[in-house]
Design brief:
8-stranded mixed β-sheet; single chain; 2 helices; 5-stranded mixed β-sheet; mainly beta; about 425 residues
């Protein structure tokens, strides 16, 4: 009879144990203990925080017991190795909650008459504090520095009071926007950006607890760049250079316009003295630049962009066009037929086409060798790329010349320094009426 009663008490006791459980609905993560000696396991609830003084832990015990019962909460004292009273209440409800909990082990004892149910859980406020800053910022690089401190999570074996450290596997990373750029706490960033940029130091552990810290980089570097339009044409050729540099300081751009590359090469051959390569004696200091090339040739252009910072300190960058500015060589083209007074606006003038000419002289003679027209210009420019000039309207002393063959003599000097000549005949046709 005593033996049967003993087993009945064991069954009742086992039945009562499973009728209460501690939970932590607001916990960010959970784990279980691995006591070295104590032959049971307890839940571990972790509450993420970025404040070392935070006590955000909260536990709730739930039971199926009906009626007025006593909820006794105790907290483990690792100094004495025993549980001490933390909170107690009597209630008809089926839950009891304690909050604002510091780190430690909490034991719940529920008593209803002669029935007692016990459960335990560990609470950890898993905080992390992060700091970051930039040092050694220069034209080539800057140094991202980071530091952090984080909660040491330690629980104790309830049989021996031996400490057990929870390994959190803390990781760090620097990010720029969505991109990860380093997994080191402090590192050197080479080739800094030309824009002010936010870098974020993230520190987190395997429980996904952690925090971030933003570091603002104020850019002191510049990137030189420009476009040229047009890249080729006849002389005189006006080229507009559009400065598209990034983060340069206004008033500190330097333009270097080189002379014709072939001229530099020819002057350098056999010379023991340095040859001046630039069109300007000194760099052209201007944010934007427009330049007219008066002579034919192939020209290189370079831009130096500077960013001023600190006490008259500068970061600079250089950009050169990959291709040459090509100012074409000179030529002359003369028509062999024109029809003045026949169809207005259609081939009714003697038009000489030319390219990259500096000066031009045109004589027109009749078949007896008498000059009937003369045209001259000592500085040809500004024809809006038409490459042509109307030099005779077909009239002599205000009246249309007789139909027939006329002789022309065209000569001039190109902007490439070459003398150009054209001689030949042109047929003047008109309606018989």
């Amino acid at each position: 009879m005593k033996r049967s009663l003993y087993f009945l008490l064991i069954l009742i006791s086992f039945s009562n144990i499973v009728q209460a459980q501690i939970s932590a609905p607001s916990a960010n993560a959970s784990d279980v203990t691995q006591y070295p000696v104590f032959n049971e396991t307890d839940d571990i609830f972790l509450f993420c925080s970025d404040d070392s003084l935070s006590e955000a832990g909260a536990l709730t015990v739930t039971t199926d017991f009906e009626g007025t019962k006593t909820f006794l909460w105790e907290k483990y004292n690792e100094q004495t190795g025993s549980f001490e009273l933390y909170f107690q209440e009597s209630s008809d409800g089926q839950t009891s909650t304690i909050s604002n909990l510091a780190d430690g082990c909490y034991r719940s004892t529920i008593t209803l008459g002669a029935t007692t149910v016990i459960d335990r859980a560990w609470v950890f406020n898993n905080w992390t504090i992060v700091d970051g800053y930039i040092t050694n910022s220069n034209c080539e690089s800057f140094y991202l520095n980071g530091s952090f401190s984080t909660a040491n999570l330690t629980y104790y074996d309830l049989s021996t009071n031996a400490p057990v450290i929870v390994l959190k596997d803390v990781e760090v990373e620097w990010t720029e926007g969505e991109s990860k750029i380093s997994s080191m706490l402090s590192w050197t960033y080479y080739s800094p950006p030309t824009e002010n940029t936010t870098y974020t130091l993230n520190v987190y552990d395997k429980y996904e607890c952690g925090t971030s810290f933003d570091v603002e980089y104020e850019s002191i570097v510049t990137k030189a760049e420009f476009t040229a339009d047009p890249m080729s044409g006849e002389a005189p050729l006006t080229v507009t250079f559009n400065n598209t540099s990034e983060n340069g300081t206004s008033g500190y751009y330097e333009w270097f316009l080189y002379r014709d590359m072939y001229q530099i090469r020819d002057e350098s051959e056999g010379s023991t003295e340095p040859v001046d390569s630039f069109i300007f004696d000194t760099p052209g200091i201007s944010d934007e630049l427009s330049y007219t090339y008066q002579n034919s040739g192939s020209y290189k252009v370079k831009l130096v962009s500077k960013h001023r910072y600190g006490d008259n300190l500068f970061c600079s960058d250089t950009f050169s066009l990959e291709d040459y500015i090509v100012v074409d060589t000179s030529f002359i083209n003369v028509p062999n037929v024109f029809t003045p007074g026949t169809s207005p606006g259609v081939n009714d003038e003697f038009v000489v086409k030319f390219w990259s000419m500096k000066s031009l002289e045109i004589n027109i003679y009749n078949r007896w060798g008498k000059r009937v027209h003369y045209w001259k210009s000592g500085n040809i420019e500004g024809f809006d790329d038409t490459m042509e000039e109307s030099v005779w309207d077909g009239k002599i002393n205000g009246r249309y010349a007789s139909p027939g063959v006329y002789y022309y003599d065209v000569r001039g000097r190109g902007r490439d320094g070459e003398k150009r000549f054209k001689k030949g005949f042109v047929h003047l046709f008109r309606d018989k009426g």
